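Methods — Computational structure assignment.
A single polypeptide chain was analysed. Its primary sequence is given first, followed by the predicted tertiary structure written as C-alpha cells.
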Amino acid sequence: MKSKSTEEMRESKLLIGDRHINYAVGPDNGPPMLLLHGISGRWEDWDSVLPFFTPDWHVYAVDLRGHGKSSWVNNDYHWRQYALDQMEFIEGVIGESVFVVGHSLGGVTALGLNAERTDLVRGAVYEDPPLFVHQRWEGNQFRLRFTVTLQVLDTNPDFATVLAHVKETNPDYDDAGSQDRAEKLMAMDPDVFRTTLSGRARANWRSEDLLQQAQAPGLLLQAEPSLGSALFDDEAEKAMELLPRAEHEKWNDSGHGMHSSFPERFADRVLRFFDPIRNG
C-alpha cells in the first residue's frame, strides 16, 4: 500500500528531444530535494521515506532513463548520461540548485552531478553507491544477480514469468514485494543490465576524479558488506580521503537498501545533514 505522501506526488514528464524523463513532484513546502533511485528501480522506491521529507521540502523523484515510465534509449546507459539527464531536469523543471539524495546507481549519478555541476547542488547524500564496483566485479553478488535476471528478460517474458523468477530468486520477499519487483523489471530496458555487465556503463568513468571535484557538502552512507553492501570498508575510506567536504556513516545492521530497511533512521540522518546547509 502506498503512503499518503506518495499518493500526493503528481507525475509529469520532461521532454528532451525525442525522449522524456518521468518524474513525480510533491507539494511546495520548502527547498527542492531530488531523489534518485537505484538500478532497476523507479521513483516510487522512495515511498517509505516520503512522509518524512514532503512536509518541509519540495520533493522531486525521477525515473532514471530506461526505468519506470522514462524513455528507453538505444544502448546509452553510461553513468555520465544519467547525471547529464539530471542537469537538464534541474534546469528545465526545478530551476534552482537542489539537495540530492541518491541510492546505489542514483548515488553515483548524484556524484556525477555534484562533480560536473556543483552550482546545481547544495548538498548530496550518497546511499551505498557502487563507486569502485569494477574492482570487485568477478564473482560480485550484483553481477551474478543481474546476469540471471537478464537471461530471463531477454526471453521477452510475460509478467507471470518475471514474477515467478522474482519469487524464486528472492524467497524473503512477501507477495507485495515480489509484485513490486516484477513490475519494475518489466518496466526497465534490459540494456540497463547489459551495459552494466559489459562494463560499458562505466567506461572512462573515474570515481577518483569525480570525488575530488564534488565540492558541495556530501554524506556518504555505507551499508554492511556482509549484508550486501555495494561499498566495502577500504573503498569508503578511499572515498573519504578524496571527497573535499563530506561525512561518512556506516550502518552495521543494514544491507544495500538502507532507506527501505530503516526509513525513519535514514530520513533523520539525511535531514540532520541537510538542515545546517539549508539554514546556513
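Note: The beta strands are 10-16, 19-25, 32-36, 58-62, 98-103, 121-127, 218-222, 246-250.
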